[in-house]
Design a protein that fits this description.
419 residues; alpha+beta; seven-stranded antiparallel sheet; four-stranded antiparallel sheet; 9 helices; 23% strand; globular; iron-sulfur; Aromatic ring-hydroxylating dioxygenase subunit alpha; oxidoreductase activity, acting on paired donors, with incorporation or reduction of molecular oxygen; monooxygenase activity; Rng_hydr_dOase-A
Length: 419
């Protein structure tokens, strides 16, 4: 069943959202809410769309589809990352049709209007002499690189707090030297669920019993508050505390920032960042916790650095280890479909089959992604039932509540701005 929602109905649903509970069905199922999400969230906020490593050379590009928008992200001849609307300035034809590639110039296949990778109009056949090329360059999209990660914002007036957020997270990212990394692997997985269900699922480990590969990398007490540690879990918790103390000493000796910063629902550009130990060998997300690549991302004296975890609203999460990094982007495709793009990054000189085994590197997150896709699809089926009613979040789902609170606040601000 598909629920429909008018604009006034959407405003009522936003206004009556109960704190601490999941959203009402139309938020997840209606085409009207999907259009509102694109307009109020994805067209107005900073979005992670790629790693710089996906654009290693001038002319390399990726395209990003966000509802009715299509954006070209490209490295120009001066080695700068730029972003443009994927729309010809002649009669509006789509310019680039592939998800990624490399170009010398951007040429419209309709009437051969030609643009440089700086967006400037270079050639417009059979136009009158008075045509001013400077007036017909590609329309720009705001783009920022932060520690090797590429963010775009479609809004004419993007959230003003991004500079502050970038300044706070860049010192955490810089030691991993992501801008000089290369892509080891990338997968695209379509989850048959609303993008908010994808993000809610990612923001909690209440369900992590369904992720045996991932759960092995975390301490058995991951997600527990100290007061909730049972006698059975106490030995594992003491082991975690020892690992945490050791990790903090290592981070301090290497000058790696590790304090948790959590501002997920208190600003327009919500984020959370934390460096913490992993279980097993403590080096990486692999079946035994050992480093997946012998060639580390940077000149770290040890691979036992656990993980640096970053989450940015509305659509991304990241894990950075000593040996490799993994980025995740959730891109809404429809009210009930979401693209999850996962990218594994390694040192530019790391050689597959010599420095790393790709199956070992990707095993944990490929399995986890597949398991999550099943869970999200089941959630979508459930919220689509007339019998569905919002349910309460558990204490372990605090970050889910923070995501939903952030989301509802952004919708409310957008709707109030239209009055």
């Amino acid at each position: 069943m598909t629920f429909t929602t008018s604009a006034s109905g959407a405003a009522r649903l936003v206004a009556r959202r109960a704190v601490g509970q999941s959203l009402e069905a139309p938020f997840y199922t209606s085409e009207e809410f999907f259009a509102l999400d694109i307009e109020a969230v994805f067209a107005k906020h900073w979005l992670f769309v790629a790693a710089e490593a996906e654009l290693p050379e001038p002319g390399d590009y990726v395209t990003v589809a966000l509802g009715p928008y299509s954006v070209i992200v490209v490295r120009d001849d001066d080695d700068r990352v730029r972003a443009f609307h994927n729309v010809c300035r002649h009669r509006g034809a789509r310019l680039l049709h592939e998800e990624r590639g490399s170009v010398g110039n951007i040429v419209c296949g309709y009437h051969q209007w030609t643009y440089g990778v700086d967006g400037a109009l270079r050639h417009a056949p059979s136009q009158p002499p008075g045509l001013d090329p400077a007036c017909f360059g590609l329309r720009t999209v705001r783009v920022r690189t932060v520690g090797g990660l590429v963010f775009i914002c479609l809004a004419e007036e993007p959230p003003a707090d991004f500079d502050e957020v970038a300044a706070r997270i860049e010192p955490y990212l810089a030691p991993h030297r992501l801008a000089g990394a290369k892509v080891a692997a990338q997968t695209d997985l379509v989850e048959h669920g609303n993008w908010k269900l994808t993000m809610e699922n990612n923001r909690e480990c209440y369900h992590c019993g369904g992720h045996p590969e991932l759960q092995g990398c975390y301490f058995p007490t991951y997600g527990y508050e100290e007061q909730d540690i049972t006698p059975v879990l106490r030995p594992a918790y003491e082991r975690f505390l020892r690992a945490e103390a050791e990790a903090h000493r290592t981070y301090a000796s290497l000058g790696l920032p590790y304090a948790t910063i959590e501002e997920l629902d208190t600003r327009a550009t919500g984020f959370r960042i934390q460096r913490e130990p992993l279980d097993l060998a403590g080096e990486s997300f692999t079946p035994d916790g050992t480093a997946a690549s012998r060639r580390l991302l940077a000149d770290f004296p040890t691979a036992r650095l656990g993980r640096l975890a970053l989450h940015t609203q509305p659509n991304a999460w990241f894990h950075f280890m000593a040996d490799h990094a993994v980025t995740f982007a959730a891109i809404p495709l429809g009210a009930d479909r979401t693209l999850v793009r996962t990218t594994w990054l390694v040192h530019a000189d790391a050689v597959e089959g010599v420095d790393y085994d790709l199956d070992t590197m990707t095993k944990v997150w490929k399995a986890t992604n597949d398991q999550d896709a099943v869970l999200v699809a089941r959630a979508q089926q459930g919220v689509s039932s007339p019998a569905y009613l919002p349910g309460p979040y558990a204490p372990a789902e605090e970050q889910v509540e923070q995501f939903v609170h952030w989301y509802v606040a952004r919708l409310r601000a957008h709707l109030e701005g239209q009055l």
